[in-house]
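Write out the 3D structure for:
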Amino acid sequence: MKGKKKAISMQRGLRRGRALALTLALALIGLASACDGGGAANGIPAAPAQSASPGAAHGGGALAKTGKIKVGFSMDTLLEERWLKDRDLFKAAVEALGAEVVIMAANGDDAKQISQAETMISQGVDILVIVPHNAEATAAIVKKAHSSGIKVMAYDRLVKNSDVDLYVSFDNEKVGELQAEAITRLVPRGKYVYIGGADTDNNAHLFKQGVFNVLQPLIDRGDIKIAYDQWSKDWTPRSALSNMRDALSANGDRIDALIAANDATAGGAVEALSERGLAGRIPVAGQDAELAAAQRIVEGTQTMTVYKPIKRLADKAAELAVKLAKGESTGADRKVNNGKIEVPSVLLSPIAVDKINIDETIIADGFHAREDVYRNVKPK
């Protein structure tokens, strides 16, 4: 009898020990959960997973790790003067805001641009800023960034058919309108050549749309005839040179006006005109305010360019990139359709520049030095 009572007592003690151990284990689990944000602490529920800041999905990003925002800048190319300016100005603007920036350029290679963007995502950037080479192909970058909790801004050129978060650029249709307005004032009737940019770049289509917003009524009236209209592969002067040679040959050199999608393509076209002894005799429009174009304007072989104050663009893009990374409002007041969504957009105003106002615009702004612009012009 005594042995039976002793066995019952031992069983009860064992059950009490197990219960105590279970209680202690549960308490420890609850403490750990409260410490890492996975449960409740002091009666306050943990934040839901979707409230995590951009970059949380890939390890928190630089903002979460160091308190310093890290901006990734994926650039199409650094082979043109204009984009070297963008790189330097954007980098300076980001750093002035207390953030850091990683810059990679693909130089016209779509696969390389996507790979470079993936590298920056894996490095833990908090925001990705893209100057796309191919407006369609870079939609893959937006998708990859979003899957890692990173927002994406399109810089100067729109990313098509994507959920890109913000587009910061100039009013690119207005650029084309300024070109066409300047040339039609000089040549209200005649045969026009249009040398476009890269067909893969959405901006090239916007520039062309702006040009034809102005030309189409004159075409419809029969005042203007489009004698030649062709894209230039990758925006290269070589492609534009070939196009302009074809245009001249097809029209027996009888061309009255030329509008080129940018200053690089204008340069190629002017070279073709020079070969036929026509440089300076046919009005030529470009855009970007490159130094070579500014020199051609004061020399008389290019009529005008469109100046897009790149410092304003770089400063605004840097400011909004940092705001996006922090989850703050960008105050975007326009929408641009990219084929999938209406993209929140900030569009700056471009400026038409010719021989008359070149000193008070690009030179006064310090965009180019006066001695460089007038280098090839003999003083009067």
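The chain has a mean pLDDT of 87.
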